[in-house]
Amino acid sequence: MSEQQTVIALAALAQPQRLRAFRALVVAGPAGLSAGVLAQQLDIAPSALSFHLKELSHAGLVAGTAQGRFIIYQARFNQMNQLLAYLSEHCCQGEDCGTTATSGCAR
């Protein structure tokens, strides 16, 4: 993932409703959620959700697939993992970034 792609992804996630939508799609897993179900879960107007999903899609973090008359949105786990890898690439001077002092850098 390039620096520019990382900035776009982080900017997309730097909004509470988009972050909540992305997290809900991560929890849903590969099956994803329809826009209507997602809007209901998040208690957000469908038109507002559509705007937020467009931003997440533009950032490459979600994808929508037509299934009949519904669009099912799914988190793009590969992109999420690339973002996490970019952010932690130089973590702890290349050592394991565990949570205890005995398992690497405890930050």
Q: Would you kindly provide a written description of the structure presented here, covering whatever features stand out?
A:
It is a single chain. The protein has 107 residues and is an alpha+beta fold. The protein has a single domain, classed as Arc Repressor Mutant, subunit A, CATH 1.10.10. It has a three-stranded antiparallel β-sheet with strand order 1-3-2. It has five helices and three strands, in the order ααβααββα. The model is unreliable at 100-107 (pLDDT under 50). Helix 1 (3-13) runs antiparallel to helix 4 and helix 2 crosses helix 4 (46-58).
- The CATH C-level name is Mainly Alpha
What is the radius of gyration computed over CA atoms, rounded to a whole number of angstroms?
16 Å
Number of domains: 1
* Poorly predicted sequence stretches spanning 5 or more consecutive residues: 100-107
Give the helix/strand class. Answer: alpha+beta
Number of strands: 3
How much strand content do the residues show?
5-15%
Termini separation (Å)?
Answer: 24 Å
Q: Oligomeric state of the chains? A: single chain
User: Could you estimate the helical fraction of the residues in percent?
Assistant: 40-55%
Looking at the overall shape, the CATH architecture is Orthogonal Bundle
CATH T-level topology:
Arc Repressor Mutant, subunit A
Specify the overall morphology: elongated
Provide the succession of SSEs.
HHEHHEEH
Counting H and I runs of at least 4 residues, what is the number of helices? Answer: 5
Within the largest sheet, what's the order of strands? Answer: 1-3-2
What's the overall average pLDDT, rounded?
Answer: 89
Q: Please describe the biggest sheet, giving its number of strands, its sense, and whether it closes into a barrel.
A: 3 strands, antiparallel
Q: What's the CATH H-level superfamily name?
A: Winged helix-like DNA-binding domain superfamily/Winged helix DNA-binding domain
